[in-house]
Amino acid sequence: MMDKLIAAFPAQLKEAVEIGEKIKLTAAVKPIHNIVVIGMGGSGIGADFAIEFSADFRKVPMLTCKSYTLPAFVNENSLVICSSFSGNTEETLTGFEAALAQGAKIICVAAGGKLIESAQKLGLDYVLLPGSGLPPRSCLGYSLVQQLYILNFYGFLENRRIDELKSAISLIELEQDHLKMKAERIAKFLVGKFPVIYSTDRMGAVAVRLRQQLNENAKILCSHHLIPEMNHNELVGWRKQPGNFAVILFRTKDDYAQNQKRIEINKEIIGHYTDTLIEVFAKGDSLIEQAIYSVHLSDWLSWELSLLRQVDATEVKVIDFLKSELTNATADEKKSDDLKN
Fold first, then answer.
1. pLDDT for res 151
2. Catalytic residue among 4, 24, 121, 232
3. Cα 118 to Cα 101: distance, rounded to the nearest angstrom
4. Is the pTM of this model over 0.85?
């Protein structure tokens, strides 16, 4: 199933663009001074990309909130995007209530659930996504694209970025078979090893995405860090020590010149402590094209590694168990409070 969902990523992006073109939003009553996206896991990663894609044009700060609480600065001059594919994510619903209480301009993005029900009931802006019941990590295209269109509507993303998004779709359609074969080759180097993922700061969301996909699809632990920040801490951690590491380094032709120098020096240093250092050069003429290319490769890589490890890429029983235990604990607390009253 997961391989079919990954293969459908270009088609999903196309469908998401069609949805984005038809979005109906209302103008903000007050000037927007900051943007906060509430979202967890596969529903929240789209915001990390949207932040990077809009960074060189957007004049207000934008951040992701991946917890139960909202920053105190959120107020009537804030745009809060609540992103939950199921529409029932506990942390996102809690943040939604806080955004209401703090007077923010709210837009909900979900495939249904309590989030859409609340938006409809309160007359709030919302975007209804297709694909209810699918794993959120397989629906990045839906949530990411809607966030780009939302930013564009309010003047925080250039029109040309939408054109670059469409070009990115064409790119991965053409590269689909090549990306799958490339992922298969890389996956063989990762078997039995601990992946360490690096990218420059402009491609940070790509590194996060691969880490999350390896966690959920391939069922392994791994780590990621960004250049140049890792040069001020993690680089010192590379020493002869227990562990069989495989380094994956995402690169583009547009990496900042000084970072390209840093990468070459890092390779020389890290090469003393691992025999597996894989450079992935992203194709594309824009950040969006390069990132979408790298995402599609990452998703295929997680799938190919799941095959080699003989694990079910779709299964997330431990997360289901966690949610069940939280629900039971909440129910027990409510029963106890009722008895006290």
1. 98
2. 232
3. 14
4. yes
